[in-house]
Design a protein that fits this description.
- This protein is α+β, with helices and mostly antiparallel strands and 412 residues long.
- The chain is built from ten helices and ten strands.
- A hairpin with a 2-residue loop joins strand 9 and strand 10.
- The N terminus is likely disordered.
- Belongs to the anthrone oxygenase family.
- It is found in: Membrane.
């Protein structure tokens, strides 16, 4: 059974999760610890040179390089982000940043699992994150992140963390014996020595609600809270919150109410539009064809007028709902292209009508006005053709519904 050495390194993230890689027992908070058998990635961790970059919907992650010193200095010079770190303030100068940079480069890279977060289109680094602490306050590896202030509020934190956790769980593992906070193994048998499901932890200040929301979006649960001296003002005490997530736990889908309503409106609207349009062809047109001219074309015109008065409005409203839902999904780092496609497919009934059905509509209007020289059989064929084209048109919002639903299910 492998036990881990007391190896000190140093790292800072937005959460209060920093090196040393293994916290000294006398520095641990006053929590209730138990010894458990579990699994963890092989230690030392893979060096930077062996780490393959990975991607999420909007982000690409790569190991840190020597050229990242300037970026790291910019990141660690922002007081708005560093105030939430275990350092509690921005770096004083480039020399302080160099120390942090060196501890993420060989030979120290194997003591943590850090990644530079970039925009894939340009390669621009915008943040960093990973497991900076092998054994944190809760006893488990501790994860964290930090982003440049210019990129806050775009959902990058939760997107990175979800992608990182998947990468972390994929590392080769071995069985270990460690001491962890009892709250992280609740519900899984609380006795010392029991084999427990592996966890990852994160620590955040109690007032940092934004980080706590990110953790919960990524499936993390609150474990416990404790107080200690605040590094930002050592005359004060600060309350810290510990969170954890178990290996194999599915990421929850958590939508803000406006996004949830927009998604539901878009999917419901496109499904309703498809059914309404299809019913004209499947139920209305067969009934119309049972009538003789001019009654048949008169009833067809009534069906058409009702549809033209309603369906464009439904299509536009549905498309707007899809547009908002896809934009929200993009901002939150969820899959969004299917929602955008759902809106485009629904509103596509308008150009489809103009391109493929206008000539048939014009002939039927002339027949209704009595200005078309055509037999009753010819009029019936026109109505039948309109029914077929209209049925094809109904497939557009149906496809939008399928694509929209598929996108939502892929996010579950």
């Amino acid at each position: 059974m492998k036990r881990f050495p007391n190896i000190y390194t140093y790292s800072l993230y937005l959460f209060r999760t920093s090196y040393p890689t293994t916290m000294e027992l006398d520095h641990r908070p006053p929590l209730d610890y138990v010894t458990v058998k579990t699994t963890l990635p092989f230690y030392p961790l893979p060096p930077n040179g062996d780490r393959k970059p990975f991607r999420t919907e909007r982000l690409s992650m790569r190991p840190m390089t020597e050229d990242d010193l300037g970026f790291l200095n910019a990141l660690r010079s922002e007081p708005e982000g560093m105030i939430w770190s275990s350092q509690g303030c921005a770096d004083k100068d480039i020399e302080q940043t160099k120390k942090s940079h060196a501890l993420r480069m060989p030979p120290n890279d194997v003591k943590g699992y850090d990644w530079v977060v970039c925009l894939p289109e340009t390669g621009e680094p915008i943040g960093m994150g990973g497991t900076g602490m092998w054994s944190g306050e809760l006893g488990w590896p501790a994860v964290g992140y930090q982003f440049l202030k210019a990129h806050w509020g775009k959902g990058y934190a939760s997107e990175f963390l979800k992608g990182f956790l998947a990468q972390w769980w994929s590392l080769p593992r071995n069985e270990v014996e460690i001491s962890v906070d009892k709250n992280t193994i609740r519900g899984a048998g609380d006795g010392d020595g029991d084999v427990k499901e592996e966890c990852v932890s994160a620590i955040t200040v109690d007032s940092h609600s934004a980080s706590q929301k990110v953790l919960k979006k990524c499936g993390m649960e609150f474990a416990t809270a404790w107080t200690e001296t605040d590094v930002r003002d050592r005359t004060q005490q600060v309350t810290l919150h510990g969170f954890f997530v178990r290996k194999g736990k599915d990421m929850p889908i958590s939508l803000p109410l406006p996004s949830l309503l927009a998604t539901a409106t878009g999917i419901t609207g496109s499904a309703w539009a498809s059914g309404c349009i299809a019913s004209m062809s499947l139920a209305g047109i067969p009934a119309v064809l049972q009538l003789s001219a001019p009654n048949s074309v008169t009833v067809w015109q009534e069906i058409f007028n009702r549809g033209i008065a309603l369906m464009p409005k439904v299509a536009v409203t549905t498309a707007l709902a899809y547009a908002y839902a896809s934009y929200s999904a993009y901002q939150e780092g969820r899959k969004w292209k299917g929602l955008a496609a759902g809106g485009a497919l629904t509103v596509a009934i308008v150009p489809f009508t103009l391109i493929f059905m206008s000539s048939t509509n014009d002939l039927l209007f002339k027949a209704a006005a009595g200005t078309l020289e055509a037999s009753q059989e010819d009029v019936a064929k026109l109505i039948g053709r309109w029914g077929v084209l209209n049925l094809v048109r109904s497939m557009l919002p149906l496809a939008g519904t399928i694509v929209g639903l598929s996108t939502v299910f892929q996010s579950l």
